[in-house]
C-alpha cells in the first residue's frame, strides 16, 4: 500500500461523501448517536473543500480516508468544561472517516499522524479534537497516539469528549 495525504479537490467530493456515509452507517450499527442528525452531509464536504480544510488519504488513486483539518478555527472549544493543556495556536481535527474496505488497518491513526506532520509544518505544536462519548474506537486511537482527555465541549446541543496532543 502506498498511502498519501493531500488536500481534497472538488472532484473528490463524491468519493468523500461515500466514505462519510459508510462511517455514518457504521456509527448507527454500533448504536452510536454520533453523526445521526444529518451531519455531516454533502454541503459540509463541499464547504470543507472550498475552504481548503478537507484532506484525503489515498491508496494510489483511490480515496480511502477523509478528515477536516483546521487551524485555530473551532469556536466551541473556547467553552470547554475542563482545561486545555495549551492556549497557543492549534490544529483542529474533525470528521475522521475511513472507507469500509479499509477498516481495521490502522488508517484513522495514520490520518492523525499525517495531521501531526501538517501541524509541525505550520509551526503549530498542539492538536485538538473531540469525539462522542459513545465512540470508544476513536477514544482508543486518541489515547494510543498520546492525546490527553481535557474535558467536554458542546456541539449541536450535546457534550463531546475533548482531547489535545502537544507535539514535541
Tell me what you see in this structure.
With 168 residues, this protein is of the alpha+beta class. The chain has one domain: Aminopeptidase (3-Layer(aba) Sandwich). Strands 1-2-3-5-6-8-7-4 form an 8-stranded mixed sheet. A hairpin with a 2-residue loop joins strand 2 and strand 3. The two termini are 28 Å apart. The model has no long low-confidence stretch (mean pLDDT 96). InterPro entries: Acyl_CoA_acyltransferase, Bact_Acetyltransf, GNAT_dom. It comes from Flavobacterium suzhouense. GO terms for molecular function: acyltransferase activity.
Gyration radius, to the nearest Å?
15 Å
- Main β-sheet, spatial strand arrangement: 1-2-3-5-6-8-7-4
CATH architecture term: 3-Layer(aba) Sandwich
Number of domain modules: 1
Note the main sheet. Answer: 8 strands, mixed
Our count of helices gives: 4
CATH superfamily placement: Gcn5-related N-acetyltransferase (GNAT)
Helix and strand run? EHHEEEEHEHEE
Quote the average pLDDT.
96
End-to-end separation: 28 Å
As residue ranges, the low-confidence spans are none
Please give the CATH class: Alpha Beta
Tell me the overall shape: globular
Percent range of helical residues:
25-40%
Strand residue content: 25-35%
Supply the helix-strand structural class: alpha+beta
Number of strands: 8
Amino acid at each position: 500500500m502506498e498511502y498519501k495525504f493531500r488536500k481534497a479537490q472538488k472532484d473528490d467530493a463524491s468519493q468523500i461523501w461515500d466514505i462519510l456515509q459508510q462511517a455514518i452507517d457504521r456509527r448507527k450499527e454500533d448504536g452510536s448517536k454520533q453523526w445521526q442528525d444529518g451531519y455531516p452531509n454533502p454541503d459540509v464536504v463541499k464547504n470543507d473543500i472550498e475552504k481548503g480544510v478537507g484532506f484525503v488519504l489515498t491508496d494510489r488513486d483511490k480515496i480511502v480516508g477523509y478528515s477536516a483539518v483546521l487551524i485555530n478555527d473551532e469556536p466551541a472549544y473556547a467553552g470547554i468544561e475542563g482545561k486545555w493543556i495549551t492556549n497557543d495556536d492549534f490544529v483542529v481535527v474533525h470528521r475522521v472517516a475511513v472507507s469500509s474496505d479499509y477498516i481495521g488497518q490502522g488508517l484513522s491513526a495514520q490520518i492523525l499522524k499525517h495531521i501531526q506532520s501538517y501541524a509541525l509544518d505550520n509551526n503549530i505544536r498542539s492538536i485538538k479534537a473531540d469525539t462522542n462519548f459513545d465512540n470508544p474506537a476513536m477514544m482508543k486511537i486518541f489515547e494510543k497516539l498520546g492525546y490527553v482527555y481535557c474535558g467536554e465541549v458542546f456541539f449541536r446541543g450535546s457534550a463531546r469528549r475533548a482531547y489535545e496532543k502537544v507535539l514535541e
